[in-house]
Amino acid sequence: MSGHRLFERPALRPQVRIEAGDAGATLRYLGDRRWLELDFLHGGDAEQRFLKLLQEGGRSAADLAEVFPGTADELDELLAALDEQGMLTESATASAEGLSGVAAYGRLKRNADAVRARLHSPFVQALAAGEVTRDQLIGYAVEYWHITHLCPRALAPVLARDDISPTAWAKTMAFYQMERNHDRLLEKSLQAVGVSREVLRRVQPLPATMALMAALGVYAYEFPAALFATLFPMEEPEPEFLELFVRRCEELGLPGEFTGPIVAHSGVNEDEDHEAVTLELLAELPFVGLEEVRECAAAVTDILEQRARLDGEIIAWYGRASLRDLTAGSYPSAAGKALTCVSSASSA
Amino acid sequence: MNEQHGDGRIVPERPLLLAEHRRVGDAIELRTATETFDVEPAEGLTVEQLAAVLGRLDGGTPLTEIAARTEVPEGTLRDVLVPAQVAGLLDEGAPAVGRHPLAVLADVEHVLNELMEELIFDGPFWQAVVRRPESLPPSVFHGFGLENWFFLFHENEFDSAILALPQNAGLRTLANEFYQEEHKHDDIVVRAFSCLGITKDDLLRSRPLPTTTALIRMLSWWARTDPLFFMATIGVLEGRLNSEGDAENAAYDSFLEACGKADLDPEFVEPLRMHAKINAAHDHGSVSRELFSRLPGLDAATEARLIGKAHLFVEAYAAFFNGILDYYGDPARPLLRPAYEGDGR
Ligand SMILES: [Fe+2]
Ligand SMILES: [Fe+2]
Ligand SMILES: [Fe+2]
Questions:
Q1: Count of Cβ atoms closer than 10 Å to residue A148 Cβ
Q2: Label partner for A251 (CA 20 to 30 A): which of A124, A276, A312, B17?
Q3: What is the pLDDT of residue A329?
Q4: Which run of H or E residues covers position B258?
Q5: Does A270 touch chain B (CB under 8 A)?
Q6: Which residues have C-beta under 5 Å from ligand 2, the single-atom ion?
Q7: Hey, what CATH class is A3-90 in?
Q8: Of A80-94, A273-287, B237-251, which gets the smallest average pLDDT?
Q9: Is there a contact between B311 and B111 (Cβ–Cβ < 8 Å)?
Q10: CA separation for the pair B159, B216 (Å, rounded)
Q11: Burial class of residue B332 in the structure, from the number of CB atoms within 10 Å of its CB (0-12 exposed, 13-18 middle, 19+ buried)
Q12: Band of the pLDDT at A95, cuts 50, 70, 90?
């Protein structure tokens, strides 16, 4: 067993009792269940001094070797024997560097702002230029429906986690319940342009939509901090976008029943302050390792880039084809090619 | 969720303002490299007070002190800072405190050590195996082998759940190495049963004791819902702890020794011994420690959670052993319990 070598500053557990005599000492732990006998081969004083320092803790094995009456190998053997009896503990207090969840949020938010500053959305550009078609507007709503429809599935796995704080769990549950029926809002929109719920259940999302929701879902399974971190880039209100969107819908004569629920859903996000959910959840983590914060930052950046790609995919696909009911009829390969060649330059 | 903001834990303890600020009329202008915000003092606050607050966001002054110096109640102060925090304009000057992961694990190990002695080695199974192996029917030893095989056969169910660990590359590497080293260990142990006329196919048609499935399922659940805790149990499962005061007498070895005293067929014992040797050679008893040594610091709530669950884990582990004596202690019972009972075919 070499587990004792992993201790930075090995020390005797406070529960270990030392019974020293003239010729040696007996170390006892857990009553009489664990014990180790040491012979004093160097007179006793040196051994007792060493045991006292080992009890005090705060010294590395190398430091201990300097006061140990014997060779470094003998010390290693002694530490191994003590550890075999469960008598050693770690007395180092400093740990690898980390941040509080509150501080981590600040970093993630500033990271997101920097990423967003270099990204542009082909969909917003086309809206501003007045080039978006009716099919593309409906396509946007369909993808938005996929997001809201997949949302509970993506969030649910985190509710099984038993290593997030009770407050974080309760907030996640509340968030889940809030998001649970948001697909109904989008269904109302799409109904107004003749896309029924039955059709929606058959259509496939665009790859970037699926990638976004898969990312959230996988984080919910095995990386709760990244799920918390990626909620705000999903939920940030976009008032400028919404204004352009509504104006274009009006220009193309789409009914108010179509735009209404989309505007309403965005309003729900704003009213309920969904953006702050990330902060509130991360604030539940008193200590996050730097590597974990970095992985969260990468996850946030990826979400933002996927969103930019999604906007490109909406233009590419719904500019050439319509609803993605891929179970029937022939596949529109031209649209598929355009879709799979969307430039990531917008997310370079 | 707005009302939750009031608890104020979402702002830094020693805030550092990452923006320039200057007074413009009855408001304050905050300016970063890319953005400008106009901030009006909240109700009950003067623009002078707001400026004084902003002037003290130096990353060194605690909120309580800022509150005292500016005569702004701490609750109000926290509320005032929330929008700046949400916008990413604040950094934390106070260091985050996490306890050394091995210090936390050592405290968990203490609980495990103590309960292993009290519930497991003082329990009926180990007492019988260590104190009076000659008096036990061979079926108890065979049952131990069989239930261990079930455990090993299902080990991938829990070990696999920590292979992806996205937040820590070092941990991930270790977990994968451990997984590879454990792979097919059930096939080593299965050889022990050929002298009993039991084949792998027979095993596949049978099922473990409920005390065994309880342990397996709990570990699988923890590996999925609290991987850190699962990682803390591996050292015990891989036989780090001893039943007696001397290092030669590790738990698994106590069993092999008892097999000798009870005069069991070496064809049954040797495959079990081989598996014990492989575990020792891979130093699997140190796996929890190795995994934890790769972690960043751990907070107090995490430690409390691990300590609490450690008790539950040892209870399940003790029941696993005692369940073996309870069932296989009666030699009249069949060694294998069929997956189907009655006329289920
Ligand atoms: Fe929503
Ligand atoms: Fe094994
Ligand atoms: Fe092993």
A1: 19
A2: A312
A3: 81
A4: helix B251-261
A5: no
A6: B 182, 185
A7: alpha beta
A8: B237-251
A9: yes
A10: 11
A11: exposed
A12: confident
The CATH 1.20.910.10 portion of chain A extends over 98-347
Strand ranges (DSSP E) for A250-292?
288-289
Contacts of B101 in chain A (CB under 8 A): 95
Confidence of residue A234 (pLDDT cuts 50, 70, 90): confident
- For residue A82, give both structure tokens: 């003590």
Ligand with smallest separation from the Cα of A180: 1
Q: What is the pLDDT of residue A348?
A: 47
Tokens of B157: 């169910």
Give this prediction's pTM: 0.94
Q: What is the mean pLDDT of chain B?
A: 92
The answer to whether the beta carbons of residues A344 and A301 sit under 8 Å apart is no
* A90, A174, A287 ranked by CB distance to B102: nearest: A90
Q: How far apart are CA A312 and CA A334, in angstroms?
A: 15
Structure tokens at A317: 């696909």
Helix (H) or strand (E) holding B91: strand B90-92
Question: What span, in angstroms and rounded, lies between the C-alpha atoms of B192 and B200?
Answer: 11
Q: DSSP letters of B19-78?
A: SEEEEETTEEEEE-SS-EEEEPPPTT--HHHHHHHHHT-BSSS-HHHHHHHHT--HHHHH
CATH topology of domain A98-347: Heme Oxygenase; Chain A (1.20.910)
Residues 27 to 56 of B: which have CB under 8 A from any A CB? 34
Distances (CA, A) of A128 to A125, A134, A150, A339, B199: 5, 15, 29, 21, 72
Sign of torsion over alpha carbons B132, B133, B135, B137? positive
Contact in structure between B28 and B39 (CB atoms under 8 Å): yes
The tokens for A119 are 């990204």
* Separation of alpha carbons A174 and A160, rounded Å: 14
In chain A, residues 9-48 whose CB comes closer than 8 Å to chain B:
13, 15, 29-30, 33-36
d(CA A81, CA B247): 7
The mean pLDDT value of chain A amounts to 93
Q: Which two tokens stand for residue A335?
A: 């649209």
By Cβ distance, the residue of A99, A279, A291 closest to B167 is: A291
Given a contact cutoff of 8 angstroms between Cβ atoms, the answer to whether A64 and A53 are in contact is yes
Angle between helix A101-118 and A224-235 (nearest 10): 50
Residue type, B242: N
Q: Which domains, ranges and CATH numbers included, belong to chain B? A: 3-92 (3.90.930.60), 101-338 (1.20.910.10)
Q: Where in chain A is the domain with CATH 3.90.930.60?
A: 3-90
Is ipTM beyond 0.85? yes
